[in-house]
# Entry
Amino acid sequence: MRVSVLASGSGGNCTLFESAATSVLVDAGIGPRALEESLIELGARAPDAIVITHAHQDHVGHAARIAKRRRIPVYMTEATAREVNLPAQVDEYRFETREPFAIGDLVLSPLPLPHDAANVAVKISDDEGTACVVTDVGEPTGRLVDHLRDCDVVLLESNYEESMLASGPYPWGLKQRVASARGHLSNKQAHELLRRLTARTHTVVLVHLSETNNTREHAIEWARDALPLKVHVRVAAPRETLTARTGPFRYSKPPVQLSLL
Ligand SMILES: [Zn+2]
Ligand SMILES: [Zn+2]
# Structure
């Protein structure tokens, strides 16, 4: 399975999961034109469906336009559907927060996450491997650690550096919201989860970084501290395509041959 982050952060989130037969978008925080450009850049097939994690605009904002234009269905929980009004032409499917469901040859396993909207982590498997996208998490949970045990690739929120949020420009109320148990995951909280991943995980992609309260360097430093050196750590930029693959780790380039002088 190929996993491609197309957009990440408070400006919009969108990740494409492609197996041999099926292609699914998790979240639709970019517009149809931006999506089209990303699909062309990746040489990807048209997506078969959109799965929405929760009803915040940076995740669901463009779902109606993409679904209508591409004539593809939208999958949501009942709680999310209550907050989102899709046009009548769009086919809607519901999923339960703890029950796996299939789209084509992909199996999707959701897990509820603590956040200030009904939110889920989405774990996706094909016959080759498993990946999970986990964003907008107020605090680490034991259930989440269990959910990530069999993942080759983990996309995990690493939203803010505690000291930067505390001393940064956000108003007091917003700082409280972000740092609360129903807000976002700090680098330090991401570290708590990352150090409990199993040896199965070969690639970690840090997502949903705050552009105000975090830096790539801070996020990488915490993640590197939590993970064995052999785990590949990458950071998703707000609007740049980043691709990872499930299954046993394959280097994209052959290892460099050192010539003996
Ligand atoms: Zn978000
Ligand atoms: Zn959110």
Remarks:
- Residues 2-245 form a domain with the Metallo-beta-lactamase; Chain A fold (CATH 3.60.15.10).
